[in-house]
Amino acid sequence: MQCPRCHHIGSKVLESRRVKDGESIRRRRECEECGFRFTTFEIIESTPLLVVKKNGDREEFNRSKILRGIVRSSEKRPVSMEQMNHIVDKVEKIAYDADDGSHEVSSQTIGEGVMKGLKEVDEIAYIRFASVYRQFKDMSVFYNKLKELMDDEEENNEDKNKE
Fold first, then answer.
1. pTM of the entire predicted model
2. What angle in degrees, to the nearest 10, is found between the helix axes of 123-133 and 63-73?
3. 134 pLDDT exceeds 80?
4. 105 in the same domain as 60
5. Is 4 a member of any domain?
């Protein structure tokens, strides 16, 4: 660390302590050349995760936006806030795990994660979210998705009866 007085490069740390809930560290330093004491702050440099939308636009990853979508699709359904937050946590983990170093993730990865989480919790909330996310154009697309869900349910029931 360069001394602000004599511009010598060497300094020693006299004291360190956390500030702002551990998000940064305050250090008291002393120049090895002139003995001048000064304070520095270290913070973690974080690069935001960007979401690449279908049209190519990019926006910063936003947990609250995902939660709002889940809340809307779960209205008047027996889905607790705890379950909704758990889905958002899982989706956030998926998004950061999908980051290959470019600090970007596709909106498709996020949408699929939300649908998977909702499907495990409440099928109606899942269908509501899917109808907006997949932009169902007409009733036949909606019906086919519902039929697919019902077929999956039948297969699961048959597997349980075999056990």
1. 0.64
2. 120
3. no
4. yes
5. no
